[in-house]
Amino acid sequence: MSLSGNLEDVSVADALQFIHLGGRTGTLELQSGGTVATIAFHQGRIVNAWGPSSKRLGDLLVSEGVLDRATLNAALKAQEAEQPRRSLGQVLISGGALAPEVMYRAIEQQIEKTVYELVTWTQGTFHFTLDEVRPIDDIAVVPGDVIRHLNLDTQMVLLDALRIFDERNRGGPREGPSPPPPAPASPQRATPTPAQELPPVAARSPTPAQGVATLPARSAPEAAQEKVRLQVVSADKHIAEKLAQSLPEVNVARVGLREAGTPPPGEPPPIVLLDLRGAGVALDAVAALRRARPRASILAIVDGGVPVLQVYQAGAMSAVPGELPLLIAAFRSLADNRRDLITGGARADRLNDSFQKLRRIVGDLRSGLISTTISLSLMNIISESVERAVLFLVRRDGLVALGAFGNNGEGKPLAQVTRGLKLALSDKNALTESLDDGQVRALPFDEAAFPQSLASVLGKPRSGQCAVFPVLGGQRVIALVYADNGHSNRAIEELDILELAAAQAGLAFENELLRRQAGQPQ
Q: pLDDT grade, residue 2 (50/70/90)?
């Protein structure tokens, strides 16, 4: 499956948000004139970006001042002599010329800068290919390895990119780089002007790069929606690897005891997994970590030689054997409860923003756009109120899954597991009932009578509640939205907001059909 279109119809910002919310893996290629740019995603996270101003890894590190030219040339010479050849990044790190964190922070900065540049493109074409992720220049690592090292907050980058695009469209102050210039002879080797240079990695601070406005402090609900960070302290390096594979929606990192409990700037405190078995972490370390990092949540791995009572007395929130299913279940329970505590007390703040949402819905779901953009905007708005959603297009022969965001009970992206899903119109369930009468439904999941093909893919939400929103055109229901809160134990709120969003999407879609039938120019 692939997605293609014109940037005049679907903006770069809309395409990026759609890929991120859908948790998709693949490469988005942009073309404007003779200039080519790419942005790679792994399960919705940006792991690579290359544009006209991007530099190769070696040149980037030299320009940042973290590597001198002589060391770079020596590494390139050593790389050339190897058979098989390692990546340049591997050569530099193994030779002690560069710390891994320095290299990955430089990559993060280049990705951010490139995305802010590309979001201003308004002419050209785009093409997204699923499951085709190209390696970052000169590093040649698989996306899963990149994710373990990069601390790039994809959602925050996209929010800032959307702001830049929105202000540009409203004629406000220009934020970020200008649209792409005429293509040079070799676009991937273009040399940026001094004004486009990145700040040195060693001196990186909370002050944003040139052209990127400072975002306000995030509220509790915003922080709770971010991916939970799980730090693993264990002599067994395979535990972190297995957890990372089993919890793709979680940032899993193996750390030392000194680093445990410390989150990156601006992030909520992590959950720390301490392995107390055998010759691993001492029991005293639990109490010491609890005193030093009181906001971190501690999950302990124990065996027959560890007194569980003392583990809890030392401050651990959970103590379980080292079996992988038990660790995953304990972690998810701990993460869900902590998320509910954060969102429960701050839910009123989100409701106070309803008026601003209403205004933006009318602006975002404007007429005169192709149906793809309308669908993207609708799912983007819904994602602010619920954890999971699936958009079904109504056809004569059934309901076809058009897009989705969120994960199922096994942690797999709904956009992936619902791909190609088709439901019969003859079945009687909450979806077909809303199709018949055009009414919004909020009901227990068990009473919705969804067909097994859908119920098994979704899995019952933790709250047991779900909702169905019809997208009404002028004469009929043209699409349906299934929504729930997934792992979060809270009911669906803001039903009126979601209903209005679906209604506005239906009007926008209907206006687009009428415009096309009238034969008006694009």
A: low
Report how far apart, in Å, the C-alpha atoms of 511 and of each of 125, 168, 520 are.
24, 25, 12
The Cα–Cα gap between 359 and 370 comes to 21
Task: Tell me phi and psi for residue 98, to 5 degrees.
Answer: -155, 135
CB-based burial label for 178 (10 Å; 0-12, 13-18, 19+): exposed
3-class secondary structure, 6: strand
**Are residues 25 and 143 in contact, defined by beta-carbon separation less than 8 angstroms?**
yes
Where in the chain is CATH 3.40.50.2300? 221-348
What type of residue is 384? E
Q: What one-character-per-residue DSSP string does 234-271 give?
A: -S-HHHHHHHHHH-TTSEEEE--TTTTT-PPTTSPPPE
Q: Is 300 helix (H, G, I), strand (E, B) or coil?
A: strand
Strand partners, 231: 253, 272
Crossing angle, helix 371-382 and helix 495-517, to 10 degrees? 180
Maximum average pLDDT range among 128-142, 362-376, 379-393, 503-517: 379-393
What's at 496, amino acid-wise? Answer: D
| Amino acid 435: pLDDT | 92
Residue recorded with tokens 């770079």: 72
- Choose among 313, 296, 306, 199: nearest CA to 257: 296
CATH 3.40.50.2300 fits 221-348, yes or no: yes
> What CATH class is the domain 353-517?
alpha beta
Give the pTM. Answer: 0.40
Instruction: Tell me the helix, strand and coil percentages in the chain, rounded to 5.
Output: 40, 20, 40
- Stretch(es) of the chain classified as CATH 3.30.450.40: 353-517
